[in-house]
Amino acid sequence: MAPARRTSRGLLAAQVGFRVVRIARFTTGDVPSYGVVGQADEEEIVASLVGDPLYSGVELTGERHSLGEVRLLAPVIPRSKVVGIGRNYAAHAAELGNAVPSEPLVFFKPNTSVIGPHDPIVYPAASSDVSFEGELAVVIGRICRDVPAEKVADVIFGYTVCNDVTARDLQAKDNQWARAKGYDSFCPLGPWIETVLNPADLMVTTTVNGEVRQRESTALMIHDVAACIAYVSSFTTLLPGDVIATGTPAGVGSLTPGDEVSVTVDGIGTLTNQVVARD
Questions:
Q1: What is d(CA 212, CA 234) in angstroms, rounded to the nearest whole number?
Q2: What is the pLDDT along the chain (279 residues), one digit of tens a residue?
Q3: Residues forming CATH 3.90.850.10 domain(s) in the chain
Q4: Which class in CATH covers the domain with range 82-277?
Q5: Pick from 10, 12, 18, 8: which is nearest to 61 by CA?
Q6: Alpha-carbon distances, residue 92 vs 27, 247, 253 (angstroms)
Q7: Where in the chain is the domain with CATH 2.30.30.370?
Q8: Looking at the domain 5-73, which fold is it?
Q9: pTM for this structure?
Q10: In the chain, fewer beta carbons within 10 Å around the N or the C end?
Q11: Bridge partners, 158 (sequence order)
């Protein structure tokens, strides 16, 4: 194994032989690790990193794995929180009979709701109407508070795909969203973090069993990424690894056990999970 070393993104790209933009969290059956995802010698590979790049920087171990031989995990487990932005597309607000909020409508999901690619979404016994919500998500890269919109890029580590799973009937029954959005497995994230991306006009597409159910551009967000981060950081400190889910477009609908739901965000990739009944 080559000695571990910390380096810049440009030098790292030269060392691993491809453009460094994607950071994944994965396992080969042992302790979860982080790696850089790319193509080398016409093969999709993961180049292993030392530690968590959010905290220790980018440091190669010298190990490489074929992407097909590893299991991808949620690319980040927030130490602190997942922040959701509700009703951030006008058509989605309208389809549920809600007004468009004048400011970002914020809710929280616990970090215990986070799962990774191909992990099961567990349908809770207390609900009979569990819904998918495909979204672009932002991963925060450093401690920040009161971030002005023009400085938001300085605090973003990268972007990933989110499915903000929601028990729609419990959301209405409880008159608040903690239980409806907070169940274990209700926040799939993945497949990796894209660190170089312009979020202004990305297509978000959700399919259920191969049928397209959502397809809309982030250009139609009411509050864009910069506005969301500026607003959230105005009242709470954001920590490295915190995730902000930026809202879902129109087309949300119900899931049933056995369904396979996939969310694709252009420029990032596809996040797929299967729905299972709770034992």
A1: 36
A2: 333 444 555 655 666 666 658 999 999 998 999 999 998 878 999 999 999 999 888 888 999 999 999 999 999 999 899 999 999 999 999 999 999 999 999 999 999 999 999 999 999 999 999 999 999 999 999 999 999 999 999 999 999 999 999 999 999 999 999 999 999 999 999 999 999 999 999 999 999 999 999 999 999 999 999 999 999 999 999 999 999 999 999 999 999 999 999 999 999 999 999 999 998
A3: 82-277
A4: alpha beta
A5: 12
A6: 36, 9, 11
A7: 5-73
A8: SH3 type barrels. (2.30.30)
A9: 0.94
A10: C
A11: 139
**Contacts of residue 128, Cβ cutoff 8 Å, sequence gap at least 6:** 169
Q: Judge whether 162 and 248 are in contact, CB under 8 Å.
A: no
**What's 118-164 look like in SS3?**
CCCEEECCCCCCEECCEEEEEEECCCECCCCHHHHHHHEEEEEEEEC
Q: Which two tokens stand for residue 235?
A: 């009242």
DSSP 42: T
Please answer whether residues 277 and 177 qualify as being in contact, where contact means their C-beta atoms are separated by less than 8 angstroms.
no
